[in-house]
Amino acid sequence: MATQLDIARGAAELFSEKGPDGTTAEEIAARAGVAPRTFYRYFRSKQDAIGPLLSSGADRWRSLLADTGPDVDLARALESAAVASFEPSGAPGEEEGLRWTRDLLQAAQADPALRAVWYRVNQESEELLLPVLSRLAGPDADQLKVRLVAAAATAAIRVALEMWATTDPDSGEVGSPVDLVVKCLRELTGALTLLSP
Fold first, then answer.
1. What's the average model confidence in pLDDT over 155-163?
2. Of 87, 50, 90, which is closest to residue 176 (Cα–Cα)?
3. Crossing angle for the helix pair 94-108 and 112-137, nearest 10 degrees?
4. E strand or H helix at 138, and its extent?
């Protein structure tokens, strides 16, 4: 996993500097300090290489959500875990991770292969969220509703990050990614009965 993250960081750095079109897989491998064959052992394309970086925030969100006790209502648990996932944990490269996410989402607007990686990361996150939500919702929860919440919560965070990435970071016109995530998650609460207190 460490090698994959090193490659992902190398790809993000180069994509930020030169754009996806101006970057080769061999350059990414060199930046990460690995051989090209090591790169291709983990990834099929240069765009695939950023998957681990894009999924790290969702991984942290699910981990925090999984640690939630069963006595917390689901809407509150989703929001609290999402907010906490943006708080600094002291992990190396964490501050750069949010900047890279913005750069990558901006680049994805013009790069279908990069956009496909982003959508795949979100689909995988939704699937991994299902067992966590099933446990929190309880054994008698309607599984259709659990799946709907997993899809909607994942989409809410995706939309929030995409909106944030299209704004000027210094303008303050839309707000921080955390503010947008909270706003999008709260929009769900009134519409999905499983999330109603």
1. 94
2. 87
3. 120
4. none
Contact 103, 16 (CB under 8 A): yes
Nearest CA-CA partner of 117 in 162, 163, 55, 61: 55
Express each pLDDT in 52-103 by its tens digit. Answer: 999 998 999 999 999 998 788 899 999 999 999 988 766 655 667 788 888 8
Element (H, E) at 154: helix 143-165
pLDDT tens, 126-148?
A: 999 999 999 999 999 999 999 99
121 pLDDT higher than 90: yes
Of the chain, the end-to-end C-alpha distance in Å amounts to: 39
Contact 188, 156 (CB under 8 A): yes
- Give the confidence band of 192 by pLDDT, cuts at 50, 70, 90: low
Q: What would the DSSP string read from start to end of 41-88?
A: HH-SSTTGGGHHHHHHHHHHHHHHHHTS-TTS-HHHHHHHHHHHHTS-
Question: Position of tokens 């600094």?
Answer: 88
- Rounded to 10 deg, the angle between the 112-137 and 51-66 helix axes is 10
Q: In the numeric block, which tokens belong to residue 171?
A: 């303008």
Distance in angstroms (rounded) separating the CA atoms of residues 188 and 126: 16
